[in-house]
Write a structure and sequence with these properties.
The protein is mainly α. The protein contains nine helices and no strands.
Amino acid sequence: MTTSEPRFRRYAAEVRAQMLVEAGLACLAAGGIRAFTVDNICKAAGASRGLITHHFGSKDGLLAAVYAAAYQPLLAAIEPSDGSVPELTALLDHMFSEANYSRDSLNVWLAIWGEAATNPAVQAEHRALYGRFRKVVAASIRAHGEARGLRLNPEALAAAVIGLVDGLWLEASIDPAGLSPERARAAALLLLEPVLGHLRQERAA
């Protein structure tokens, strides 16, 4: 008598949860929110349907976790482990880096933004993540203004800067060929420099 091979491999709970998050990210990157289905996610992760409920409570709970995972590289890059405040120009450079303008990354952001407006689980995650993001940007703007003797409103400007970046990311997600990272950064600086002063880093020859 022979035994058949188990349909699903056994993994530690935290590993399986991370596999579901990565599968969710892959589905969003490949096909947007329409591709974020239980069947697609479970197939990509090699997991049973019940594991989404087990680990995240619901598909919406998984989507919130996927949103946090999408945000994590950005936060990791702008929140120095030593607690220092990132320089504003470097912060803007990171926002307009090639990594943030990859086709997959833009697809993920576009899909999740649409859900954040109406999905309570994603809204709650967004408030927490956006709050951290805005705090870092405001601190960078405050330090920038103090170093140059500028009278600024860091909190209001942080919201404006993030809104500007998000708008450029949105346009790039719709038409990536029409708005390269370089053009997006130049457009942002054109609007920001009259308020914040010189932001263009000198490039090595």
